[in-house]
Design brief:
By secondary structure, the chain is mostly beta strands. Helix content is about 15%, strand content about 30%. The chain is built from one helix and four strands. It has a four-stranded antiparallel beta sheet, covered by helices on one side. It starts with 11 loop residues before the first strand and ends in a 22-residue tail after the last strand.
């Protein structure tokens, strides 16, 4: 993660909240549940899910270059006992120039 810079009017943030306890689940929530079941090898039924999308978000250094943007999502979900976070990037990956970051000991990946 890094700081996005929306100060130049480039990029947009959207969010959508899904309350699914005692209600019909939209296809998006079914997809999230399927991913968690597949990756975590556990049963899972969401009662709440939040999807946040950052579209064409420029990196913090956008004061000098607003052309290198990235589109990505964070999906938070819970069944009331366990919570998960899925991070999804647009095809083509993160387009920010991480070589310009102040910190040089940055890791990209997951554990």
């Amino acid at each position: 993660w890094d700081d996005a810079d929306f100060s130049r009017g480039v990029g947009t943030t959207f969010y959508q909240e899904f309350f699914t306890l005692n209600s019909a689940k939209p296809p998006f929530v079914h997809d999230v549940e399927a991913k968690i079941r597949r990756y975590m090898k556990t049963s899972y039924s969401a009662v709440w899910t939040l999807k946040i999308t950052w579209e064409k978000a420029p990196a913090h250094t956008a004061r000098t270059d607003t052309r290198r943007t990235s589109t990505y999502q964070a999906v938070l979900t819970t069944d009331g006992f366990r919570s998960y976070l899925l991070i999804l990037y647009q095809d083509g990956g993160m387009r920010w120039d991480y070589s310009q970051l102040a910190a040089t000991n940055v890791l990209i990946g997951y554990s």
